[in-house]
Amino acid sequence: MIAPATVLFAGALAFTGCGDKTAPAGGHAEESHTGPHGGALVELSPEAIRSSEIVVGTAEPRPIEVTLELPGELKLNAEHAVDVRPSYPGRLVKLHAGLGSRVTRGQALAVVYSNESLGEYVLTAPMTGTIVARPLNPGAAVDHESVLYTVADLSTVWLEFPIYMKDLGRIRKGQAVHLRAEGGPAISASGTISYVAPMLDANTRTTSARVVLPNTDGRWQPGRLVTAIVVVERVTVPVAVPEDAIVRVGTGSAVFRADSTGFEVQPVITGRSDGTTTEIVSGLEHGARIVAKNAFWLKAELEKEAGGDED
Predict the structure, then answer these.
(1) Is 91 found in the same domain as 55?
(2) In terms of residue numbers, what domain contains 119?
(3) Domain shared by 201 and 72, yes or no
(4) Confidence of residue 304 (pLDDT cuts 50, 70, 90)
(5) CA distance linking residue 179 with residue 71, whole number of Å
């Protein structure tokens, strides 16, 4: 559990008998020396702890989502989209609905003149939805292959993304997927894989997966490029810390232990991470108190005391 470093905790930081203990103006680090575990120690005044908003937490078992990030694209839900085509060949006389218009099932959409029908006939909307394509204009010659309109129900859209050879077998129907938009407003969503194509594309040597996303508010536009974050595994690791607790020092990754002596640098070896939580493979025991937030501030103070020698 993560909790703020309170005044009581701040007051418990002991200033040992090494060097000058007078807090400098602005409440910066008092001194850097070796802590109980042999790492460099940063001692702070209570004022410095409060001003830096340091948060102390515990290294403990935590769930981690093992994920794969893949490029994705939003598409029309093809099961809820219909092309409107002429019943008889002829000439397009009139179009009643514009691109983006909302139409209802049975609503008149177009008038076509055809000798085969002995005059004009009316084409109606086959479903309720939105006009997403209107490629022709009045006067155009049309036949059975001509698309006059595409009507789509946009209350759901498809997220489709490729599955590469190296990931075959890791991505399956039923897995959770987090969606992150690329560019534009910072929006996201989550869904479940509903379909995995059973065959590889002969040219790209990939297959694909699909997620059906709710879109009742219309925020997901077909054609938009996104990132699909597939949760391939959920595990609970024995020792983990928030990602914000990890800092880079000259020897690699480290965290700051927190106890009554101050904040001590502890080198660690990290394992799996989901961007929020990171597994600690070695270097830190279960139950250790660590700086969970604003550890970068302590790193900066440590570098300042060391004369900027740290990376």
Answers:
(1) no
(2) 78-152
(3) yes
(4) confident
(5) 10
d(Cα 104, Cα 78) in Å, to the nearest integer? 18
Instruction: Using the Cα atoms of residue 304, residue 306, residue 308 and residue 311 in order, give the sign of their dihedral.
Output: negative
Claim to verify: residue 25 and residue 130 sit in the same structural domain: no
* Two tokens, residue 8: 């009581």
Q: How far apart are CA 127 and CA 106, in angstroms?
A: 7
Q: Are residues 180 and 216 in the same domain?
A: yes
| Tens-digit pLDDT profile for residues 68-108 | 999 999 999 999 999 999 999 999 999 999 999 999 999 99
Three-state secondary structure of 100-139: CCEECCCCEEEEEEECCCCEEEEEECCCCEEEEECCCCCC
Q: What is the CATH number of the domain that holds 209?
A: 2.40.30.170
Query: 3-class DSSP state for residue 173?
Result: coil
Specify the DSSP element, H or E, that contains 288.
none
Q: Are 29 and 47 in contact (CB under 8 A)?
A: no
pTM of the model: 0.70
Choice between 248 and 187, residue whose per-residue pLDDT is larger:
248
Among residues 199, 213, 208, 215, the alpha carbon closest in space to that of 173 is found at: 208
**What DSSP line would sit under 182-237, residue for residue?**
SSSS--EEEEEEEEE-SS--TTT--EEEEEEEE-TT----TT-EEEEEEEEEEEEE
Determine whether 260 is exposed, middle or buried from the number of CB atoms within 10 Å of its CB (0-12, 13-18, 19+). Answer: exposed
Q: Give CA angle at 60 (237, 276), nearest 5°.
A: 70
Kindly state whether residues 196 and 240 are assigned to the same domain.
no
Same domain (yes/no): 178, 296: no
